[in-house]
Amino acid sequence: MSLKYDKKDIYSSMSQEEIDNVNGYSKSYMNFLDKARTEYLAVEEAVEILENNGFVSLDEKVALEIGDRVYFINKDKSLYVAVIGSEELVNGVNIVGAHIDSPRLDLKPMPLIEKSGAALLKTQYYGGIKKYQWMSIPLALYGVMYNKNGEKIKVAVGENEDDPVFTIADLLPHLAKDQMKGNANEFIDPEKMSVLVGSLKDKEADAKESEKVKANILKILNEKYGVEEIDFARSELSFVPAFKTKFIGFDRGLIGGYGQDDRVCAYATIRAIIDAADELDNVNRTMIAMIVDKEEIGSTGTTSMNSRAFDMFINKLIEKTNSMGVDKLEVYYNSKVLSADVTAGVSPEYEEVSDIQNGSMLGCGISIEKYTGSGGKYNASDANASYMSKVMGIFDRNNIMYQVGTLGKIGKGGGGTIAYILADKGCEVVDCGTPVLAMHSPYEVTSKFDVYMTYLAYKAFYKE
Ligand code: MN
Ligand code: MN
Question: What is the CA(373)–ligand 1 centre distance, in A?
């Protein structure tokens, strides 16, 4: 037997039956990804899946019994889920947490302008993007608005086959001599990332000639949604790529789609807690799944992992399982967590930014990242060796194909996840998720084998 460790590709070692499972899971994931275009919609989709599998709102339960399945929606944009186990909460719970916000173009509070005969919506980008990737591609508009009566209006344009789409019209190369001199950080001015939304005038409008296209858009929005210009200020609307999720390659081994960071792990987290609960005769440790918002901008705000709403959820579990007197800090201290977030796959044409031996190869399994951060592990949550041993042991016993990696070479950049927040609470935690190519681009790429292995890994983790 060789003492050497080698990465193995999943496909070569799978039976046809297992490959059929990969394809089946991939299709339901791709369907989820097409629907869950925003964190609002990801929560809605997840709740629908949970309710179809016997989960009810935590508020409906006065007391919680072993085996109970509950969820708690935090302000429409993050979600905590639990399956109650027989083990006392004070001895810890098994948590898998992913995020459901993805880089995108948000509207500014007062976004609608008219210039040179075109109506445009001004945007402010959300999360870390390479701005040029978002120019001259089809965009869809999703989100919510409130009218002056406080009624919530859902907006989704660009989703259906016969819907219009939107786009940022980039400058033609013929006239881009000055633009092209800037470095990639600068050559797209974010103040110019305004999205084309109209070109026709409302001839009857009581407006200046130069504002009749804007007036027409306001008229259309009023007819369709009953809103006025000021109502943009009480909205959360985002432009996202209008591409459908597809298999990539002649051999259909990869998946291309928007928002895979981190909805690939979010979907796996939800499916895993359901299937783990179904497959176990007795749930031992309480299982918790969470899909949270605002990771991409530093986990700030009421719906982020940093929100104390999660502590409140744990308090409610303590109260409703009649575990009064238990300190939630002790629950955290004895809990184990997978921070379910994607990592960078080794990019074929940019191998030089990866340390190959410590890189994650597409198709070689879910990737465990002992630490994130940058430089001298700055801002990293660095998992304890004893906890690495525990997680690797779970995966080994359950034939999970995994690899261990770091994001990239030291000094080439870096990144973070929600892991440090759970570590701060006292939980044992490590990052563990699907390798992705072209992360944060409008069209991210994963291997369908890693996508499936991510789900199997989380399920195995829940069950132990
Ligand atoms: Mn992420
Ligand atoms: Mn990200």
Answer: 13
Is the model's pTM score more than 0.85? yes
**pLDDT value at position 130?**
96
CA 19 to chain centre: 25
Give the domain ranges of the chain: 11-102+258-463, 104-241
CA of 262 to the centre of ligand 1 (A): 5
- Residue 291: nearest ligand to its CA? 1
Rounded to the nearest angstrom, the distance between the alpha carbon of 261 and the centre of ligand 2 is 6
Quick check: 430 and 338 in contact, CB under 8 A? yes
Contact yes or no for 380/407 (Cβ under 8 A)? no
CATH of 11-102+258-463, one of 3.40.630.10, 3.30.530.20, 3.40.1190.20, 3.50.50.60: 3.40.630.10
Q: Give the distance (Å) from ligand 1 centre to CA of residue 342.
A: 5
pLDDT score recorded for residue 1: 75
Given a cut of 90, whether residue 31 has pLDDT beyond it is yes
Distance of CA 218 from the midpoint of ligand 1 (Å): 36
User: Which are the contacts of 195, defined by CB distance < 8 A and separation ≥ 6?
Assistant: 105, 120, 121, 123, 139, 166, 167, 168, 239
pLDDT tens profile 239-283 = 999 999 999 999 999 999 999 999 999 999 999 999 999 999 999
- 353 and 347 in contact (C-beta within 8 Å)? yes
Give the distance (Å) from ligand 1 centre to CA of residue 62: 35
Q: Which ligand is nearest to the CA of 100?
A: 1
Q: Ligand 2: distance of its center to the CA of 36 in Å?
A: 16
